[in-house]
Amino acid sequence: MSITFPVAMPMYVETIREFLPQRYPFLMVDRVLSVEPGKSIVAIKNVTVNEEFFEGHFPGMPVMPGVLMLEAMAQVSGILGFITEEKLPADGFIYLFAGVDKLRFKRRVIPGDTLTISAEIITSKQKIYKFACQVRVGDELAASAEIMVIEQNLEIAK
Description:
Blueprint: H1 13-19, E1 31-36, E2 40-46, H2 66-85, E3 93-105, E4 114-125, E5 128-137, E6 140-153, H3 154-157
Antiparallel strand pairs: 1-2, 2-4, 3-6, 4-5, 5-6
């Protein structure tokens, strides 16, 4: 697939895979609804009972692990970083999770929920981005955090 910038919206999973190295069962973004390079992104994740983690978290009372909501926020932030820089993993770059502040979980996420994941750039300095992120289910806040990701040149990292 050939990506051209600006990227057309909505962005479906075929294009999302060009921006993220994660694959099933760890890809936490189903669709990107909107992106404003250098500013913000909004994406969705459809939560289904078929997710492997529900077998053990928790039997009889399925709840999406909070760490996976955090991962979804980090993945959406990484996509925004790539689009802002007009780069792809295929160009030899990756965005790595570098830290989290102010992480809060406000609502259980269960099968059938659709997560709306948003990220806004707070700061960007020397290829380190800090984002204000939220996960919502409808109008309800499910999780929020400030996430940092760092751009890594894969050639230098070897």
